[in-house]
Write a structure and sequence with these properties.
about 260 residues; alpha+beta; Aminopeptidase; 7 helices
């Protein structure tokens, strides 16, 4: 058994395994896989058993005020090789590698915590989704340009070491999706269609928050911190942590 980052000529096999496990259309996924701003073959790990790629995952660099960390995404194992501990060995290896290279803390999003507890992960937070109060159409605020958004986010993130920092690469990743940011209190509110994934404010702002039929998608801790007026909230995902603070400040615009 060998565990290592994939080689360039193994990227197609990696993508095919990921699409098979997560039931994705290969051609559509391919257009995203190679072009997303955080694409890095050195962060696409695989377990090889008897020459076959059997389990995979991707790591994503993260930086907080207290230091570097990484996120884990796309953990997948071939159906005929499940239950043999390959994913667990891969997780342990990748976490050990992270610690040796200065990325001591690891985070991931999961629906089944039991799959990751054996690898040292514990539930740190819960991702929720729910409805937001309505806003009158003629009360929609002005849009903000990219420079203003980056400046306001940097000021907000710099006030707490547990908040995620964004370098140029992460801002490229952030801008990769179609997002609209509008003036909101002393900060801004960020939407993808009718879903609000990010709101940067220092002081809670009175409802209503968004245009009709909007939803909030975010960490439960951030929902409470920002007094987001969400109703009918329901569970979406767990945020799990290994060797890092559980009370991190991040938005689902940075989901990995």
């Amino acid at each position: 058994m060998t565990i290592r980052p994939i080689a360039p000529d193994e990227a197609a096999e990696f993508l095919d395994l990921m699409c098979t496990v997560f039931d994705l259309e290969v051609e559509r996924a391919k257009s995203v896989f190679y072009k997303e701003p955080l694409f890095d073959l050195e962060r696409k790990w695989a377990v090889f058993s008897e020459g076959d790629m059997v389990s995979i995952l991707t790591t994503v660099p993260l930086r907080f005020g207290w230091g570097r960390a990484f996120g884990i995404a796309g953990v997948a194992t071939r159906e005929d090789r499940r239950g043999l501990g390959f994913a667990s060995k891969l997780l342990q290896h990748v976490c050990a590698h992270g610690e040796s290279t200065g990325e001591g803390a690891a985070y991931l999003f999961a629906r089944e915590p039991s799959l990751y507890r054996g690898s040292g992960f514990a539930i740190a937070d819960t991702v929720i989704k729910g409805s937001l109060d309505r806003m009158e159409e003629d009360a929609i605020p002005a849009m903000l340009d990219g420079e203003a958004v980056e400046a306001r986010y940097a000021a907000w993130a710099g006030k707490d070491p547990n908040r995620l920092r964004r370098d140029d690469q992460r801002w490229r990743y952030w801008r990769w999706s179609m997002r609209v940011c509008t003036e909101f209190g002393d900060g801004y509110l960020c939407s993808e269609g009718s879903v609000v994934r990010e709101v940067v404010i220092d002081q809670p702002v009175a409802a209503p928050w968004q245009t009709p039929d909007a939803e909030w998608f975010g960490l439960e801790s951030m929902t409470k911190l920002l007094s987001v007026p969400v109703t009918d909230a329901h569970f979406e995902l767990y945020l799990m942590a290994r060797n890092g603070p559980s009370n991190i400040g991040m938005f689902m615009t940075d989901q990995f």
